[in-house]
Amino acid sequence: MKKIVVSALSILLILSFVSCGSTPEDENENPSAPITNVDELDNAAVLEALSNARKLAIESGAETSEADKLAAIDKLYADIKEKADQDVKIASEGKDIADRYLALSAYISAKDAKAKIDDTEMFSLAQSLYDDGCAALDELEELYNDPEATGAQLLSKATTASSCLNTVLVTIYRKIATDERKDALETKKDADSVKAGVAMKAKYNEAVNCIKDGDALYARQNTPKAYESYNKAKVMFEELFEEVTAKREAALKAIEEAKKKVAAVEEIAEIADQEAPITEPVEGIEDEDTVLLEEDTYEDPAEAEAELPETVEGNPLDQVENVVSDFLEGVDAK
After folding, report:
1. Scanning 70, 99, 101, 325, which has the fewest C-beta atoms within 10 Å of its C-beta?
2. 243 pLDDT higher than 50
């Protein structure tokens, strides 16, 4: 969510170059000559804002996914640069073109978010926002087919569609990530049940660190990467349980085989004692109560189990929706 809002704010920063021409601080410093007319803006500043707006569209993938729309805007951009070379004021036209580039970037973002949402079939987690985003996206498609549509109109609808749908996507990713974390903790319990923290300590600690890394990513709202960390931990704990269980079963089988061999030897020894008992000490044979090895101590398996919280903290959904609502109100006010 934070990345979405930051991207949206970067759009507003670019727009500020071509919308009012000055900041409140500028006006206070020079109250006698405030710039209130967009046509008063310097052509160089307008062209710089246009370059940045186009760069955002390119970074969004416009060259491959929306080449025709990008080409149409680029034609307007080329025309306005020719006017700038002739010292014609281009601020008003520049704002419209910047809006179109920024709208294209937001449009691509909205479409990508909707596709990912629909793949999950989990849009009911934020149904109202999903409906609003889809409605805005449909209206935006209609505007793109309207030759009279302005850049400002396109940007308004694109911003609404992108903000709503990306918020839904964040909500879904949060749900998927938290569910995967719960599954990872369940597989950890299985690994703990076979004392994997003692039997395969290095791999066990690596799996635990994956959950901790996921928690850190989740706290930073990077839920897709958090999911990947939780999934990796889950797989590792599953492997630990299977590997340690297999080794334990092999060890138990070996012990049973050894017991059978010992029993067979004892039976032979008992027959030998009856037929030819040893009545005197024999070199190399220890007394029955002789201690051959020092007493060993073992690590407490319980102490090897890592403690992890059952839940992970993140911004509640209502806070996320409030951020989007505040942002959209700011866009409408502009």
Report:
1. 325
2. yes
